[in-house]
Amino acid sequence: MKVLLIDDHALFRAGVMLLLREAMPGIEILQASTLRDGVEIALNQALNLVFLDLELPDGNGLDALEMLKHQRPSLPVVIMSADERVGTIVQALGFNAMGFVPKSQPPEVLQAALHSALAGGVFLPVSIVQTLAGDQAPFELKTVIETDHLGLSPRLFETLGWLAQGLPSKAIAVRMGLEDITVRKYVSQLLAHFNVRRRTELIVLLANNQVSFGPPPLSQPALDGHGSPY
Q: Which residues does UniProt assign to the signal peptide (predicted)?
């Protein structure tokens, strides 16, 4: 597992790296203290996962997230931020972030969030899950996952896993060796299966039920064919 940590606070980076190494011995961690350096590494290195702070001195993390997901769509990005406003989190999910780890939470919550990300699960603050879920009836997944992959066919379950990791339909099509239109049909079927209208609601549902899909695979820059550097 090879991850990139982009954050301008050295003490916070050191703490996160300690937790990551506790969660997964042997993990390789790259780090960057500026957005420019972090984006350059993310565009040119083979990585499994990126942890990205939103508030960096040389740029806006959401802008960088949008650009990264455009140029490296197969690379999962988890946001780490002290900004827990609903609008910020919804915007990050709209840019295909894999999850949102709140910096203000105690160490045990941060550790659980990192474990979830390394296992291919979506992590969102409990308060945000409750707010975004609204009055929607909970969908009980835990009793189903052990027997039949949430009641989905193997292809739909694989598609769901890529969606959870933040891949858009075109990148999923490349991973699965399918036409883009076929993946779009799969996504529509998933939304109907879980009775949600959009990917954001589906991500909240997965986070609420703590569903994991296995460690994110290595993403190669050549797979995405990114354009000019940040």
A: none
Q: Give 176-191 pLDDT, tens digit per residue.
A: 999 999 999 999 999 9
pLDDT reported for residue 143? 36
The alpha carbons of the chain give a radius of gyration, in whole angstroms, of 17
Q: How far is CA 215 from CA 56, 64, 163, in A?
A: 27, 23, 14
Tokens of 150: 């949430």
Q: Is the pTM of this model over 0.90?
A: no
What is the Cα–Cα distance from 225 to 206, expressed in whole angstroms?
30
Residues of the chain with pLDDT under 50: 135-147, 226-230
- The pLDDT, as a whole number, for residue 141 is 44
Beta bridge partners of 100: 79
Return the pLDDT at 225: 60
Query: What Cα–Cα distance (Å) separates residue 110 from each residue in 106, 157, 230?
Result: 6, 27, 29
Whether the CB-CB separation of 35 and 77 falls below 8 Å is answered with: no
Tell me which residue of 183, 204, 181, 182 sits closest to 194, measured CA to CA. Answer: 204
Contact 121, 211 (CB under 8 A): yes
pLDDT for 171 equals 92
What 3-state DSSP class applies to 105?
coil
* First CA to last CA distance, the chain: 25
Q: Residue 122 CA to chain centroid, in angstroms?
A: 6
Report domain extents, the chain.
1-225
pLDDT of residue 159: 96
> Is domain 1-225 in CATH 3.40.50.2300, yes or no?
yes
